[in-house]
Design a protein that fits this description.
Number of strands: 10
Strand content: 25-35%
Number of helices: 4
Helix content: 25-40%
Largest sheet: 4 strands, antiparallel
Distance between the termini: 8 Å
Structural class: alpha+beta
Strand order of the largest sheet: 5-9-1-10
Oligomer: single chain
Amino acid sequence: MYQVEVKISGISPLRHNKYTIPDRDGVKFVDVKTKEGAIQDALNRSYFDDKKGYYVPKEALKACIINGASKFKVKSKLDAIMMFDDDKYFIDSKDYVIEEGVVRIPPGPKGVRVPKMWVVNKTWGIKFKATILDETFPSQKIKDSIINAGIYFGLLDNRPEYGKFVVDEFKKVK
């Protein structure tokens, strides 16, 4: 068993789109037909912790890296042997913008076009640590999987246009 410490930084903006259920977990129902309501809805759907700021959840990070591992045909093995130490990895930037766009409800060419807003971190980066349970698994394949994840898949919403990143630091530690 060993750990890898990784620092990544975004090369494209990071767009938040957390699944929320109104009137549950402190999320209030808002009327998205008004501009104020649409902005509040975007803020409700962001990955935000009141004490530390914006974050990337471990599930999204792991899924991204596992997608990157698919390029090397080690997807299922890495999925089984990689564990993350924290539930949330906080973004090193507190800056965000509210971005407006159009979506189709329901999705597809026959859906009605409606405006929607999202929280977007224009500049961002995170540090994370993962434990690898199989000591024989090469750390270089993990690094390559993370690099591919940043190039081809990206993090969070509207990938791969948003959420692309590069690996700034990668270190194997015991």
